[in-house]
Amino acid sequence: MSRTFVPSRSATWLWCLGIISLIGSTVVASTTMGWDDVWVIGSWVPRRTNAVGALTGVGLLLLVVGTRWRIVLTRRGALPRNRHRVRVAGVRVLTVLVLIVALPLTLFVAWLDGWDAFHVLHPVSADGCRIVVQESDSFDGDGTITVYVTPAGEHRARRVGYRGSDSRMFGADRYELTWHGESAALRLPAGSATGPWSCSG
């Protein structure tokens, strides 16, 4: 027995999924404010902006599509006008409240993450150990450089070094990384050397 396709019900589901996605972005943004763990996937360091931004973008898209679909159905007479006014008002209020919370919080997370830049440096060691550099900017123009080691086969980086810097962000190509077996040494853009660090801990 085949199910009948109901356009209005599909539009409602799109709106619901959009609201859930926006609420999800708010939850992720608010629960990761103090999260300092650094994870590495290949040459990519995921940021909370990636998750929050993706959930917010998907939520907005679903809201727009679902709302537009219901407007079109109403104009075509497929949906009655002025039906369940209290429910319609509640839906609008809920949508506005979710947007008021989710959008500014997403922008705030993006602003916070914008003060840091992560670089997975090359080359990796013979066994696949990776060195990650975090460049952190500051309001006064100075910055800090934090070095992490990610052992082969692992994705969670381990902090091994920290250095103040009188410059802003440099970029991955400004660092000189050399390996001696599974021990790494790093020359910073300012010319000073730091390390060595062992991949085994």
Can you characterise this structure?
The protein has 201 residues and is α+β, with helices and mostly antiparallel strands. Helix content is 41%, strand content 22%. It contains three helices and seven strands. It has helices at residues 7-31, 48-75, 85-113, and strands at residues 116-120, 130-137, 143-150, 158-165, 176-180, 183-187, 193-198. Strands 1-2-3-4 form a four-stranded antiparallel beta sheet, with no helix packed on it. β3 (143-150) and β4 form a beta hairpin. α1 packs antiparallel against α2 (48-75) and α2 (48-75) runs antiparallel to α3 (85-113). The longest helix is centred in the middle third of the chain and has 29 residues, at 85-113. The termini are far apart. The mean pLDDT is 82.
List keywords for this structure.
single chain, alpha+beta, 3 helices
Q: Give a quick account of the main beta sheet: strands, pairing sense, barrel closure.
A: 4 strands, antiparallel
Q: What is the overall shape? A: elongated
Strand line-up in the sheet with most strands: 1-2-3-4
Order of helices and strands: HHHEEEEEEE
Strand and helix map with partners:
Blueprint: H1 7-31, H2 48-75, H3 85-113, E1 116-120, E2 130-137, E3 143-150, E4 158-165, E5 176-180, E6 183-187, E7 193-198
Antiparallel strand pairs: 1-2, 2-3, 3-4, 5-6, 6-7
